[in-house]
Amino acid sequence: MKRSKLKRQGVAGYLFLSPLILFYSIFLFIPLFFSFYLSFSEWSGFSLSDIRWVGMKNYKALFSPGSVFFHPIMTNTFGFALGSLAISFAIAMVISYMITRLRYEGFWRTLYFLPTVTTIVAIGNVWYYMYNPTSGVINGALTSLGMKTIAFLDNPHTALASLIVVGGWLGIGSAVLILTAGLKAVPEDYYEAATLEGAGVSAIYRKITLPLLKPSILFVLITGFIGGLQSFTLTMVITKTGGPGNATNVAGLEMYNQAFGFSNWGLASAMAFVLFLFVFLITLIQLAIFRRGGVESY
Amino acid sequence: MRRKPVPWFSYTVVIVGSFLMVFPFLDMIMTSFKGAAQYNNLYYKFLPDEWNLDNYKTAFNSLSMGLLFKNSIVRSVLTTALILLTSSMGAYALTKLEFKGRNTFFKFVLSTMMFPSFLFFIPNFYIMVHFPMVGGNDITGSGGHGGMATSIWSLILPFMVSAFGVFLMRQFMMNINDAYIEAARIDGGGELRIFFQLILPMTGPALATLAIFEFINSWNEFIWALLMNSVNKDLATLPVGIQTLKSHLDSNVTQPLVMAGLVISVAPVLLVFIFLQKYYVRGTMNSGVKE
Lengths: 298, 291
Description:
Oligomer: heterodimer
Largest sheet of chain A: 2 strands, antiparallel
Radius of gyration of chain B: 24 Å
Helix content of chain A: over 70%
Shape of chain B: globular
Structural class of chain B: mainly alpha
CATH superfamily of chain A: MetI-like
Order of helices and strands of chain B: HHHHHHHHHHHHH
Largest interface: A-B, 99 and 99 residues
Largest sheet of chain B: none
CATH topology of chain A: MetI-like fold
Helix content of chain B: 55-70%
Radius of gyration of chain A: 24 Å
Shape of chain A: globular
CATH class of chain A: Mainly Alpha
Order of helices and strands of chain A: HEEHHHHHHHHHHH
């Protein structure tokens, strides 16, 4: 009886899972093995019979002393991820703390969240315009304050920083969302008890709020960092190929351009796996921290 | 915290901050009304000198907005519908049917979230263009004129499964009492019928959350749509159409036109979000960050 039920449900189970199984076979397993193989090959993307095995050549090229991939591209990638995360995290910590004390909290949070639900094409184009040396708002403001205009995106010294600002601005919304949820999960009685004991605002924040907010903070930092390492659409929309020179180029964009701009599919695949290695290591750290902290895997 | 004095300082900071968050959108809207004479000026002015709708008219004519809109809508609606179906079917199997390897499969689905999307652009591009038996391709995937990229399905199929969706639906279905299902089974209901007539109607709130989340993601997705557009220009979605228009023309001349196009493409999603944000927010809380 039990056996036949198991068997009947087993058939149904696999039938219900068949779309997933089919999908993961075609769009996960085959591509992963395919591009892993490509990362050891030279190929221009035309016929499968042209794929030429070259062993570690692509990886060696990425790690070689003259390679632009590690510097400036990977350093830009980490710079962008850390810089924009620092901006969005610092601002979100202040804003989320204040928002929870205000009326119409949901309304304010919505305003901060608008960029998150807007296509990067819109975000990129608007900021590109705002950074415009002659007709953009930022230089307009500098001029009216009697300062010189800055060619933010054309100057190699300011271009990456300008992009980091946009990345930071863009990340505020989701960080605020997660941090306000964390703040509201702190039981009200803790605050009341501390106030009765005569604790000041800063003591309450350090002794109660911060420790209880730690899982949310870790979540924002780690997922934000992983997201920042992968980001390249914003850079593509604003500076097209990561210019001037390689000043704003990041790993994802370089991978995209090597594959679809220069038809170096093997080299591009190697770049994808190098970047993936970093993302994977950080994911493992995240899992380890959350396991130890007793937080449910997200 | 109640009955305390009004937190003026917090209000000031939050309001100044929200202004900085919203300003780029206002700038986008204002610029979309500016005429040619104004944006060729060498200084910035927030308000348009005169409000004219020329940019919107030109955007509709020269951007083939109709096609872009149609592509965006078809793509987002079908992707969302397929994700709802595959997620809830998968979740049903993972919660209400007993078979070997069930938990292993769920762990596998969760682990797929570790693979970032950039790993798949290169191989999936080749797979789509050389998909066997479509777009003139033979069984080996060659000989055709673009394979799957000849059809809008190339923008849908690679997104038709969402690990987050399976996770969300599974969480929800675990709380549905098995007694309903046992009763239906005793009455002789087949699993498909139980799923569609009994279970799906009960999962409304979870489906709503997932639908809005995935619709917005799909509407905004850019890189993959850009890649398919490089094979077949007829597949341009709103973000792709506007971005490629920009790269074809001098950006100083077309800036207000681009802004008008962006306002048109951003407005539907912002409206969906503002009215249904309760559901969207729930989805984001569970997934963490935007892709």
